Amino acid sequence: MKVLLLINAKSGVKNSKANLLNVIDTFCAHGHSVSAYVTQRRNDAYDYLMKNRVKYDLVCVFGGDGTMNEVTNALMKKKHKPLLGYFPSGTMNDFGSNFDLGNDFKKIAERICEENVQEFDVGRFNDRYFNYVAAFGAMCDVPFTTDRDAKEILGNIAYILEGISKLPEIRMHPIRYRIGSRQYRTDALFGLIYSGNRVAGMELEDRKKASIDDGKFNVLIVDYVPTIFNTPDLISTILQQDKFIHRYHTNSIVIESDEDVIWTLDGEEAKMKGRAEIVNLNKALKLLV
Question: Among 121, 153, 168, where does a domain finish?
Answer without folding.
Answer: 121
